[in-house]
Amino acid sequence: MREFIMLIGYLCLIALVQMVLEAFIDSSKRPLHVHILNIACILGCVYLLIQFVFEFLLSEIMSFITFLF
Length: 69
What we know:
With 69 residues, the chain is an all-alpha fold. It has one domain (2-68). It has helices at 2-24, 31-68. Helix 1 (2-24) packs antiparallel against helix 2. It is elongated. It starts with a helix and ends with a helix.
């Protein structure tokens, strides 16, 4: 459960950084920078989610399955 709370915290931190940086970037003058920022934040979130799944979730599922059999 602690790892899940940390994951949610990291995702919220990425979202907060994205909102702050979007406020500094003028989207009408630099739309490419906004797209790059959005893609970078999405990729960061996807990386954290995949890391969480492979490190914690799969091990918990496997221990639960071996417990049943």
